[in-house]
Structures are given as C-alpha cells and as structure tokens.
Amino acid sequence: MAFTPEFLDEIRARLPVSEVVGRRVQLKKKGREWAGLSPFNKEKSPSFFVNDAKGFYHCFSSGKHGDIFRFLMETEGVSFPEAVERLAGQAGLEVPKSAPQEQERAERKRTLVDVMDMAAKYFEAALAGRAGQAARAYLDKRGLTEATRTEFRLGFAPGDRNGLKAHLLAQNIPIEALMETGLVIHGEDIGEPFDRFRDRIMFPIQDARGRIIAFGGRAMQADAQAKYLNSPETPLFHKGHVLFNHHRARTAAHQAGNAISVEGYMDVIALAQAGIGNAVAGLGTALTEGQMELLWRMGPEPVLCFDGDKAGQRAAHRAVDTALPHLKPGRSLRFAFLPDGQDPDDLVKAAGRDAMENVIAQARPLVDVLWERELDAGPTDTPERRAALERRIKDLVKLIQDETVRRHYMTAMAEKFQMFAPQPVNAPVPFQRRPWNNGERRPKAGLREAIRPSAGLRQAAGAGRIKVREAALLVALIRHPRLIERHAETLSEIELTSPDLARLRGAAIDAAAHGEGDSQELMEAAIARAGLSASLARAEAALTPGLWWAAPAADDLDAETGFLHSLALHQKAHALNKELRAAEAALGQDLSEENFSRLADIQHQLRTVEGTESTIEGFGAASGRPARSF
C-alpha cells in the first residue's frame, strides 16, 4: 500500500522520535539531543543519539540512522507498511482507505482471521478438556510446560468429523467461511463438508502480525496417513511465504543478529522454551525463495539447522541451490548440522541450551557446503574428473545474479582448487612453531632471546596486524643499521601495509642521515627519541625463529643476505597481489576458462611466496649456524 508524504509527515509531526525510541531505549537529555545506549550493539558508553528537531536518530557504534519508521523496522523487524500502521495508531490517525475492491478484500480477510481465532479457541478448550487427556500426556512427555503451551496457543482437534464445524455454525459462521479457511474438507464428490483436522494436536500458524492464518496438526494415531497435516492454500495462507513463529522470532532475531531455521514446529517450541527465541521453521517442505527473503529480513546470515543424516544433507543442498541466485553483498546463509539421529528438540533436552548454541556457533558458510557437495559428488583422481568438477562449480556460480558476489565466489573456488595443484619438488615447508633441537641447530648465545619474545609481546604484535616479512625487513635495518646506507635507494620504495613499520622506516632513515647508523646502540637511542620503542618491540614480537637473521646477534653478512632475499619475496608478493586484483576483476566480467586459470595460477604463486623464504647456499655460517636453507 502506498502512503502519501503528507500522511507520513503528519505521523512524524505527532510522534517525536524520542517518544518512539524512548519506549525501547532509556534516553537522557544531552543539550539539544537525547543520548542512550545503542539498541543495536552492546556497549557501556552511550553512542546513540536522538534529535527531535531534525526528526532522526543516529547510532555511532553501528552506523545506523533513520526516522521513527526505520527505527521500528530495525528493532522489531516489521515491514514499512506495518510500521506506518502501528505508528499511525499511536498518533491517533486513521490509515487512508484503499480502493473499494481492496477494502472489500481486506474486510473479507479480517472476517476469515476472526474465524481462525474462533477455531483456535475451540482447539485450546478441547486440549484443556476431557477429550484432550491423551494429547496433554503426549505434550507432558515432550517436556512442554503449561506456559509454553499457552504462549504458542497449542490445542487439540477431537476425532469427531463435525465437532469444529458444528461449533462454528452454532455461532452463525457461514459454511462458506469454513470452506474458504480450509477448516473443512469439501468438494463435488463429498456430500457434506467435514472437519479437516481430527484427532490431532494443533499448532496455530500466525502471520508476521501474529494473526492466525492456518493450522498444523500432528496425528495422535501412529497409523495415520499423514503424521503432520497443514491447512491448504487459502486467501489468508500462502505456505511458501510464511514461517512458523515468525512474529515472535523477528524481534529476538534482530537482537541476536540472525534467525535460526529448523525443520519442525516442536523444534521451534522446544528452543523457545530453552531460551532461544529467534528460531523459525518452514512448513513441512524445503525452504522457498519467499521464506528465505523473510529470513534475510531478520538478519544477513540466517543459520539453517539440519539433521546430520543423509536426508538433512539433501535438505541443506536444496537450500543452497535455492539461495544461490539471491546472494548479495553481506547476505548469505550458514549451515549447522546436528549430531546424527538428533533434532534440536532432542539436543536441548539431553544437553541443554549450551549444546544447541554450540552447534549454531559452528555453522558453516554456504560456500563451503557448496564446495564439499560437489567435491563429494564423485572421484577427482583424473584430470578429466577434476575438469568436470570445475565445470559444475562454474555453472553453479554463474547462477549468482550479483556480479560482486559472483566474482568473489569464483575467487574462493579458485583457491579451493589449489588442493589439486602439484607441489614443487623442493617446495619449502611452511613454518611450524616447534622447540629448538639439541646440538648443532641451537642458535648461538644471545640469538635465542632476540628471536623468541615474550607471550605478551607476541599478543601485542598480533593486535597490530604486522605482517611478519615486513617486520623482519624493518627489524634487520634497525638492528643492522649499516644496511640502511648500502640500500638507501631501495628502502623508500618498500611498500608497507603497517603504519607502525612505515614510521619506523622514516625514523631509521632520518637517524642514519644524521650519523646515527654506525651502531645498534645509536640507532636504538634514535628510535627511542622518536617515541617508537613500542613499535620496534611489536615488530620484533612478530618475528618467528626462521627469521633469526634479523635479530641483533646475527652476523651482518647473514643479515644482509636474509634481508635481500626477503625483500625480493616481499616485492614479488606485492606484484602478485596487484595481478590478483586485476585477475579477480577480469573474472567478474568474464567467467572464461582463461580468466579462471589465470586467477588460479596467481593464487598458486602467492601461496608459494607468502609462507616461505628462499633457499640460500651456505646461509647462516657467519652467524655460527650450520649452512642450511631457510
């Protein structure tokens, strides 16, 4: 429904932003504005501000900004029309009426919703009465409390073929309304309409506004033709666009950041009872595009939960195929697989809420599930079979409509194909942290301390995001300052990603220019005067034992050899990264074999360069180490 700007402005004029926001956020006056803790992020200091004069809120911690309509949409997951209707009611305004035909349809729907609510009350009364004794015992066995049953309005449909029909007809509800809502079964070959749901525990299905629009019924008899039975498609109910528990879960999902999709009503209810309120379920079939859109409105990366058996795997794979065309930047799915033979209901009963949250925390990204599905589809032991895998992957990725996401998927898949790339015969083994061996491989006195900093320093280095090779180059220059004079022209051309290291380089070059490059002591004093001792400590903390040549105790000859070879690798890596960005862009424009192969080749070269150093004949002898490669 379209709303005129004048009507929206009237709502804004009647409802100050602070009034609407203040119902959810505790606000305090701060000058001309109001301030409070962000409703979007957990924080201790207020970063959320409301300005009534300008009619907006702004959250500095999350970057979210908007008016009163946007606030309801962001915090409660409602649609724009719902936000307008709700705020119009609070403002004492009547929403403008639509065309006569639309008004008639809306009125008819309201009547049918009333009928569904009357049916729900009938089922609730039946569950509480004598006829519902066995159903209550079943729910007791499943561990559902009275409060949970009331919250979800669970009920029972007795076995009588005409019980609900007679009840509603007695309240002057026309039989046509029962037919239209699907509460009775009718047809040309059926003489008299009769109740659709009989001898079943009843689960009301509600729309995004909490109105009952359909029912799901679980059979009490083990030999029933259908264990679960849903309402048919009706003017109220379109199964592919509805999620069970949507109206309750969306606020919790917005608070948690995402929704969780499980497979059954009982799973949703059990999770809610355990305190996991952001769970929803499809309605007995594979998730549709419409249902995924609802999930994405609740959060950018919903977690889809499946049983760990083969049926669960197949359901997950169907969800992958449904989602692929609709992926967008920042919008995807994650997949959680439960232990074999267990569903969420079983898991929370056996191991509690923490066990389920642990499963959710380990959810895997869509790209990994897609890759493993195709990898497991058949052997890949020959070039032809690997080529078939590549073709399948490319065809699937082409289904992604968003160009940016498609390009990144091709890049990710090219990286995964590196598992098939042959390793060079003399490929260096990536560094693995291990203790020094006894005997001849032990570094000489003073060297071990220089290259094995404390755990605290290593943590500081990690926090600064210093790349190890860049750190080694700068530490070598400062601990062996004569390198600066010999390689002055090269130093300014070294590309550094860390601001810390760039400042160290500038200070070192400046110190050498003022005659302080003759010794480690003079250089260290210059670095201290520049206020960069902590930066130097972080750089040294980033070094690994394989980079011993940068340490103070290494011989200048070994330091220069290591420096030059690491510099060559550093420059090669930067050049390859530029080529990689160009290759990714080319692949995004044209998903050709040539572009894919080019990207894979560059990634392979980068993999070789990034984790290793060159082999240098006789390297280390001058520092009292046996001649070996590094």
Blueprint (SSEs and pairs):
Elements: H1 5-14, H2 17-22, E1 28-30, E2 33-36, E3 48-51, E4 56-59, E5 65-66, H3 68-76, H4 80-90, H5 100-128, H6 133-141, H7 146-151, E6 155-157, H8 163-169, H9 175-180, E7 184-185, E8 194-195, E9 200-206, E10 212-219, E11 228-230, H10 246-256, E12 260-262, H11 265-273, E13 279-281, H12 289-298, E14 303-306, H13 310-323, E15 334-337, H14 344-351, H15 353-361, E16 364-365, H16 366-375, H17 383-397, H18 403-416, H19 447-451, H20 455-464, H21 468-479, H22 482-486, H23 488-491, H24 499-513, H25 520-529, H26 533-541, H27 556-589, H28 593-610
Parallel strand pairs: 12-13, 12-14, 14-15
Antiparallel strand pairs: 1-2, 2-3, 3-4, 4-5, 6-9, 7-8, 9-10, 10-11, 15-16
Helix pairs in contact: 3-4, 11-14, 14-15, 18-27, 18-28, 20-26, 21-24, 21-27, 27-28
